[in-house]
Amino acid sequence: MKKQKLQEIYPTSSMHAYPTNDSSYLSIAMEHGFLWVPKKSLSHTEKQLLQAIHTSNITDIPISNKQHPWYASLFSSQPLPKDEGAFRLIQIESQALEESTLRALQEEMSTILPHAVDLFFLSRNYAIIVEAFSEDALDSKELEGLFLALDSDFNSYTRLFSGAFHSFNNDFTRLLHEEEQLFLYLLEHNTQTKVFDTGTAAVPFFAFYNVSQSYLMQSLFEEWIDSELIQIILALWKMQGNISSAAKELFMHRNTLQYKVDKFQQQTLLNLKKMDDLFLCYLLIQTFNQ
């Protein structure tokens, strides 16, 4: 039975990238995730039927709060294990992996991403990496090359959502939930792209969802955008990303503007000369600049 049909039958259900441990919900394995159905809305017969539809995708490897402190922070409302710095969440979807392959892939990812502070699989085909900010953090294109190599080594097929870096004082549980919904939406509607990020998600997702209600977008505006950047982004938008034309519009030397754009890219991994990234910043300003 297709996900859309089940959601029509059970309108209080919701899609997630991972199964739930909450005993009040039933997790049903679907393509690109799990449908969570409240058990209180189900009869005994319906529970049996849905469990028959479900093919278990949950890993046998237990997740230890001690070994994976970010798991407790993201899913058990525990304080963050770090009280300073900025972090991003990288979500990984793959075909279901054997336990031995899963362990080996997890070890390899930990090795090649030296700034990862936690990494765990929530199911046989879904993992989360928590990475601390560094000046040499990989952008989406670099992550794509890295995971293409991993796929070749492990005979796997992975797709990723690379979230933005957020300050430690944000609510990472809420951030994960929103970034997870972006990822699930893109997996369903874009079958070609291997690595997504917030910039590539903004146009397709927020064409249908209210950006003003997004905690994620509000957080990005507050962390990224100051009064000077507002003027720069508006000028770049007006000039379709052309640095020279925007510099003239701002009465600013081209090299000065280029330096500021490069500095913003170093801090956020967003390239304001790319229209997707520029649109995201323009959207933030139009929505939250009161």
UniProtKB/TrEMBL annotation:
Biological source species: Tetragenococcus solitarius
SUPFAM superfamilies listed in its UniProt record: Homeodomain-like
Domain of life: Bacteria
Protein name: Helix-turn-helix domain-containing protein
InterPro entries with a match to the protein in the record: CdaR-like_regulators (IPR051448), Homeodomain-like_sf (IPR009057), PucR_C-HTH_dom (IPR025736)
Annotated ranges, domain PucR C-terminal helix-turn-helix: 234-283
PANTHER family: CARBOHYDRATE DIACID REGULATOR
